[in-house]
Amino acid sequence: MKDDSLMLYLHVPFCVKKCNYCDFLSFASGDDTKERYVDALCKELVGRKQEMLGRRVSSIFFGGGTPSLLSHARIRRILDLIRRIAYVDKNAEITMECNPGTATFENLKGYREAGVNRLSIGLQSASSKELKLLGRIHDYRTFLKTYQDARKAGFLGVNVDLMSAIPGQDLAAFRETLESVLGLSPQPEHLSVYSLILEEGTKFWQWDQEGRFQGDLAIPSEEVDRAIYADTRERLTKAGYEQYEISNYAKPGFECRHNLGYWTRRDYLGLGLGAASLLSEVRYQNETDIGKYLADPLAGRSAQTLSKKDQMEEFLFLGLRKCKGVPKKEFLECFGSSLSEVYSAVIEKNVSNGLLEEDEEGIRLTKRGMDLANYVCAQFLLDEV
Amino acid sequence: MAHTDQSKIRNFCIIAHIDHGKSTLADRIIEQTGLLTSREMQAQVLDNMELERERGITIKAQAVRTVYKAKDGQEYIFNLIDTPGHVDFNYEVSRSLAACDGAILVVDAAQGIEAQTLANVYLALDHDLDVFPVINKIDLPSAEPQRVIDEIEDVIGLEAQDAPLISAKNGIGIDEVLEQIVQKVPAPKGDPNAPLQALIFDCVYDSYKGVIVFCRIMEGTVKKGTEILMMATGAREEVVEVGYFGAGQFIPCEELSAGMVGYITASIKNVKDTAVGDTVTDAMNPCKEPLPGYKKVLSMVYCGIYPADGAKYPDLRDALEKLQLNDASLFYEPETSIALGFGFRCGFLGLLHLEIIQERLEREYNLDLVTTAPGVVYKVHKTNGDVIELTNPSNLPDPSEIEYMEEPIVSAEIMVTSEFIGSIMELCQERRGRYLGMEYIEGTRALLKYELPLNEIIYDFFDALKSRSRGYASFDYDIKGYEQSKLVKLDILINREEVDALSFIVHADSAYERGRKMCEKLKDEIPRHLFEIPIQAAVGGKIIARETVKAMRKDVLAKCYGGDITRKKKLLEKQKEGKKRMRQVGNVEIPQKAFMSVLKLDDKD
Q1: Which pLDDT score is estimated for B441?
Q2: Mutant choice from B528, B529, B531, B554 vs A, greatest count of A C-beta within 10 A
Q3: Domain span at A237
């Protein structure tokens, strides 16, 4: 059942430079465009006031791109506006993504004072060689400075993003990065560990096509990738983190509520260039052309109404990403039929193949099931009736 | 009433190697004899084609009648009979030729004589046709008309010095062709008052008129009300309508008399009653004997055709039934495969015929098909004296019951420029060819003669030939007969289960190589499963090759956030869609295209 809470996502598409593996909607730009963009974002917020009416904003997430390329004054302007036009829960989680070397202590302090209470830092690797290959603008020392500044500025919930399966990486190399991060004091409350995916249209994709990822720069095999994955889980569990999603680990109580909201299909309103929304049964996507967006931030939003079938499928393939899995009770409440009525055959088959676990509460992926999440989830797509 | 004056009729066809301009010349003849203006030609011919397609009848006009006012001031009726241009349809070609009195030989001024040119000319001469050559594409920069004229005289022995030099594409020299048709194609003979004797050279099915029989009247006269008898099939019907061929349309007329080409309809519902090559006569006043040359058409190549979606089996059956209405040479019978379920074993004249039918099933009937490797008809001589004609490898008796086996052999002629002789001979050698000889056509070109097993040329011989001669070799063949051969059945085991639809018959000497390639290919085609899958090739229970598909290790997207969801779902949908195109054998899912992968094992080229 939908409650009255609403999550807000604000997209900041600017980066100092595009990373070699990145296929997100982001690009470099001057200060003038940033100013115009914040203007447009504010205009959009005001224009979408109706959609926030009567809702309790439970989390706000600045994603990118690199949101920390916006000054604290600009972030404050946006947050103040949101508070004026919508009801923001006093316990709301307000996260900002931040890349090392893009935020001064002054800005970090400013963000904190503006209400941002969670920071997600994109470290990716502690190895300068790997960082260079990825096309990141920072080195590990720059990260350390940003991390310490963030702590000094008063951030209590800090996430660090790491990347595995970087070309040329082996288990030992990744372990070094992991140990460096665990050696931080205080340790980050949250870690996200993604394995790299080569996406079409990126430099990495092109380099791979050209055969440049060979020898020393070979893309780690599936075996290495899975060894890193298992090792990470084991090491982080020992360090007091709990895995709560396929790629996410947190100290107790520090799970990212905003992201959990995506995986439980809470309503969210996406603002900014190309941002996606889910409001009740409709999924939206904003205009993706920056020129058009700046000209009219409310135009060009496309909508797709989700059928009950779509919603059930999403509920399953998103829910299964969480370690807690898909709760039976909520499924029944949402859709009026029980999970086993709809999916008993698929569940049974995957349980017997050792990919799913089932109990009274619900179903969830086993460890092997997590390695093969797509294989399992694809089976939860329903045939057209 | 007076019958049509035979001296004013010319029945002819155009023969050529593929791409030498046969159809273009046909179009020009139709256009310049004034049957249609060039504007109408576009409109009418195309419109009609579409209608034809809708009704599922023949795509190309089989015959057309036009009227030409010659320089002598007389009007002549031209019946141009179109002949299919491929070796698969040699029998049909021979019947079309038998309906003519003369033939125009079109030769490309740049390419000169090719294998099919020779084959077609010899076929035409066999039917006592008067053949006159036409040199086409003279406006090409690489045209060498005089060289080609000399070649025609030297190689074929046809008088060619006065051959019209034309460009069918640009309408150059067409007048001369029309005049030569009048002068060089003899007028038909035959007595309009003799008992009816008409040759069937094609037929189409029309849902309103029933079977429309295309025929050439050799003797006698046929009109509405005549009770006709098909001499080979024994079918009897009363004629409903006779007529001739307009441009893409049927034009009824009073009667068809000796020397004429036209059509007959007689409420014939079953196309099997009208065999190409059969003789139509008057049931009340029959001719003494049928025309010579009738043969029952035999399928040369067989394969299994299955619906990709098992539930579409009835649709496939209906589609085959409809196609057969127009194509009596298509054979099919139901069969069952453990791997593929219910489907049909289909017989074809050759590989091109197979491809055409497959394409039409997919395009016109919107069916998604799984086709097994095509095979030829083997003769299995059993120890108890029985002889089986084997069309499906799965039906091969136990080796202990087999005395010996025979396979069909073809005589092949390959025309090639001298620089490629070596590589083409090597290819024929690899395909178990028996060298018969070589003739030099002129300084730089040779005609290679080989005997080859049919099963060695049905897969990819033509492609290999083209690629090893940079497209210059041309090829023609004729079925010669059966020969004893050391053949074995190669079985494929996937996860230790034999997959019947992948079995095929192969010469014992190439079994190992084929088996190995097959396993390698299947290893690439079969996706990883939760468990490891051995792929094995076996002959008579003995494993001769093995590959392994490793178990699935990783299939997960690391990231999935708000905006990603639509993308992620598309990915999963694609994955699920892929699964639909799989066939479950035991607990292994095999993609449909794996069943056709045996076709493309020659990775050398």
Answers
A1: 76
A2: B554
A3: 5-263
